[in-house]
Amino acid sequence: MGTEALAQPTRNSVGGWPFLDEGQEWPECFCGERMVLFFQLDVPPELEPFGGEHLLVFHCRAHNDASSPELTDGRLVSRYWDAPQAPYPRPFWRVLLQRDAVLPTTEPEPSLRALPLSLRPFTDVPDERERGAQTFKVGGAPSWAQFPEYYHCACGAELVYVCQVPEDMEFAAHPGPSEQPYSVATDTYNLFLGNEVYLLACPARCDPAAVWPVNQN
Question: Rounded distance, CA 116 to CA 138, Å?
């Protein structure tokens, strides 16, 4: 992650200007507040099955909590990206994998500082328990702070690991009144209470939002 604030849109960024598919609205939480763009990136083309697609991770500022999967018949519930997330009527996050995210929004994310996000190739060598490096990464092997978790989409496809956010990763916020509840500092935000997050996506692409965020610590 860079430290020099962005002055214009870029496809790999913390905060910044979301690149969305045509007709895709900036996600809103059930509370009516527009979700915060935490980061976005182009999945490297060699990382199948999602190479070349654009990943965006949004999370409500006001609702800082952990995700909890709900299953039916061994699968995530129908439209789990919009289904109730106890005790809330809907999820407080939205993760998108989009194929045609060409144009940025006119305005940047207001809560987080817009910073460049650089992806550098590295060799992720799993340990004897098949856990990969505990770092921010796209591809590789999940580090699994607890035990491996695998899920099937409501459409029947087995979700595929895409990206990992390490535990307590801090995202620099603009100073002001929009502090995040339960964050570790007044000038930073966390995803899902600072849990380690593993993003698993549907390879059948039944919906751009068919991505499940596994939380562990």
Answer: 16
Distance of CA 19 to the CA centre of its chain: 14
CA 90, 93, 97, 99 dihedral sign is: positive
Residue 193 has pLDDT above 80, yes or no: yes
Per residue in 3-18, pLDDT (tens digit) is 678 889 999 999 999 9
* C-alpha span between 144 and 132 (Å, rounded): 8
Comparing CA positions, the residue from 196, 184, 154 lying closest to residue 67 is 196
CA distances from 169 to 45, 70, 139, 206 (A): 26, 26, 18, 30
